[in-house]
Every structure is written in C-alpha cells, then in structure tokens.
Amino acid sequence: MAGLNVRFLAGLGLACLLASAPARAEVFDAAIGEDSLRLGVNGPLSRLFAVDKGEYDVGGVYGDIEDFDSEHFLSLHAGATLTGDAGATDGAKFSGGLGARLQYVNADHENGGALALGGNLRLKLLNADRLRFNANLWYGPDPASFGDIDEFIEYGVSIGYELLRDAEIYIGYRKIEVGIDGGPDVDLEDGAHIGIRLEF
C-alpha cells in the first residue's frame, strides 16, 4: 500500500495487543484491503465497567483515500454496544449489538469526528456452525459531528469461516464516507478486504 505509515501500524498494533493481553475472550481483528489496513480489538464490556453484558470496541483504519488516491486517511474509534440474542429461526441464530462510538477522522488535512450511533448483527448457521455472517452500520449526523467533519457513515458486511474454533478468516466489504464542512462528501474507503479474527 502506497505511503503506509509504519508508526501508525506499530502503535495501533501495540495498543491492540496490550488491550487484549490481560483478559480472556477478547477478539483481535485485522483486515487488509487494496489500499487500507484495519486493526481492532473488542471484548466483554465487563472488563471496563460493572455490567454483565455488552462489548467494547477500539480500532482504526489507515489507507489511501478512495476519492483522492494521492492522499491518506486515518480513522480511529472507541465505542461500546449492548449485546444479546437478536432472535433465532430454524437452523440459524442471530446475535447483535446497539450502541455508540466516538469517531476521529484525519483525511486530506481535514480533522474532526462524530459521535456515531449504530450496531452490528451476526448470523450463525446451526447446520454449518463454522460459517459466520456479520454486518455493521455506524452513523454520525451533523449535530453529533465536530471539527472539519459534518457527517460520518461507515457500514460493512463480511462472511467468515472458522479454520480453528478460535481463529476465523473472512472476506468482506466496507465503506467509510465523511462530509467535509463546507465541502463535498468524500469516500475514504469503498471496497473489499480480507481479514482474520483471533479470540484470546
């Protein structure tokens, strides 16, 4: 990937490892797109607060801006979701989460962010229990945005396969779009990626 920021990757990678080291049931997530890299950690919210359900999620994406491939972007987030059973049908089980993220974006010399609301949905097929389907959506409108950013939206889908019970490989699609204050909407990322999820 052109212009890869090695210090960002090393710093975010170290932060993710430190976050997951002292506890169990954390998930390390890494995904590589054509011009991007995402690193993240999520785990039980009980590690941070006295709650019996929910997840925290921290991570970031670094890459070339889709609309301006000579420029780079950095998108960082920290958030929490209330998680649980989202219903089940014959042969499938749904789980999901709803919550909020604090999102920071640096793109083409513009800095800002948003408080984004959203969540995720996960589907497990009971007769093919190594397959996983995931979808997520996060949206921060103008009133919840700050700095040079007046809107933020991120959504994605993926399908994964557990090679081991604690190690999944997946392919997916992700789009990240921001509105620039006084300017146009900009696609930071819009494309496919391949990734791994490792549970500790």
Describe the protein in words.
By secondary structure, the chain is mainly beta. It has one domain: Lipocalin, CATH 2.40.128. 8% of the residues lie in helices and 67% in strands. It contains one helix and eleven strands; from the N terminus they run H-E-E-E-E-E-E-E-E-E-E-E. The protein has one helix spanning 6-20, and strands spanning 27-33, 36-44, 55-64, 72-89, 92-107, 110-125, 131-140, 145-147, 149-164, 167-180, 185-199. Strands 1-2-3-4-5-6-7-9-10-11 form a ten-stranded antiparallel barrel. Strand 1 (27-33) and strand 2 (36-44) form a beta hairpin. The longest helix is centred in the first third of the chain and has 15 residues, at 6-20. The two termini are 29 Å apart. It comes from Panacagrimonas perspica. Pfam families: YfaZ. Residues 1-25 form the signal peptide. Keywords: Signal.
Low-pLDDT residue spans: 14-23
Distance between the termini: 29 Å
Mean pLDDT: 87
The total count of helices amounts to: 1
Signal peptide: 1-25
Pfam families: YfaZ
Keywords: Signal
Organism: Panacagrimonas perspica
Q: How are the SSEs placed, and which strands pair?
A:
Blueprint: H1 6-20, E1 27-33, E2 36-44, E3 55-64, E4 72-89, E5 92-107, E6 110-125, E7 131-140, E8 145-147, E9 149-164, E10 167-180, E11 185-199
Antiparallel strand pairs: 1-2, 1-11, 2-3, 3-4, 4-5, 5-6, 6-7, 6-8, 7-9, 9-10, 10-11
